[in-house]
Write a structure and sequence with these properties.
The protein has 3 helices and 2 strands, in the order ααββα. The chain is mostly helical. InterPro entries: V_ATPase_D.
């Protein structure tokens, strides 16, 4: 994967510290997101088991209601059953709200109870049978299960969306951001190491050059001192020769007298 981040960053120690902090933060965020995702997955699996069980119970309740509907249609006719269903003057009301589940906002369904007493179903006792009451009660139970099933399905969809979002963020951190930061960190550190080696080599060359110049200066001073000492010895020798010559002249002068 090509990395273009280091092309626009200054390879300095300050930038290295900044990248190191950003890399540590990205790794910490990745760990937190992974834990959050795993926690939501456990909640999802638990709710999925409950949803599967509720779905099975709802299917069984609907099959029981369908069997009772067939029996009622055979005994009283479809028209009587339709009139029985239209006799009810009130219907189940559903209010969709929100609640918190492990820190996540999920939908919450509030509904009035679908179950009614005999006097609240809209038909009288006369002209109906116990089968009718059992059929109505079965459909009321199915309606309540369907509301619970719809609520749980909405929660599952919200959990799936959040898990998918966390998975994308974790994948981005794992496969894109963290590798780029690691490459950038290695680039800056390699650049700083090379620059440090160059600086050490430059200091070594400067030291060697200074030592060589110091040695040349000392050699020149030594040669100059030797030259001065030689001149001084030569001057002393000449002075001694002139003194000796003067003494010889004095001695010859005294002899001539």
């Amino acid at each position: 994967m090509p990395n273009r981040r280091h092309r626009r960053t200054a390879p300095t120690n300050r930038e290295l510290l900044s990248v190191t902090d950003e890399l540590a933060l990205a790794r910490k965020g990745k760990h937190i997101l992974e834990r959050r995702r795993d926690g939501l997955i456990f909640v999802l699996l638990d709710l999925l088991d409950r949803w599967t069980e509720l779905r099975r119970e709802t299917d069984e309740a609907f099959r029981d209601a369908a069997e009772l509907h067939v029996q009622g249609a055979e005994r009283e006719g479809e028209i009587a059953l339709r009139a029985l269903s239209e006799a009810r003057d009130s219907h189940t009301e559903l209010i969709v709200s929100e609640t918190k589940l492990v820190g996540l906002t999920v939908p919450f369904f509030m509904s009035t109870s679908a179950r009614r007493s005999l006097d609240g179903r809209g038909y009288g006792v006369l002209g109906t049978s116990a089968l009718d009451d059992e059929l109505v009660g079965s459909y009321e139970s199915v309606v309540e299960d369907v509301v619970r099933l719809a609520e749980m399905r909405a929660v599952l969809l919200r959990l799936l969306a959040e898990i998918r979002r966390l998975r994308l963020r974790v994948n981005y951190l794992t496969q894109r951001l963290i590798p780029e930061l690691e490459v950038e960190k290695r680039y800056i550190r390699r650049y700083l190491d090379e620059r440090e080696q160059e600086e050490r080599f430059r200091q070594f060359r400067t030291k060697r050059r200074n030592e060589r110049r110091e040695a040349e200066r000392r050699e020149a001073e030594r040669q100059e001192n030797e030259y001065r000492e030689a001149e001084q010895r030569e001057a002393e020798r000449r002075e001694a020769e002139r003194g000796a010559e003067t003494r010889r002249r004095d001695e010859r002068g005294r002899d001539d007298d």
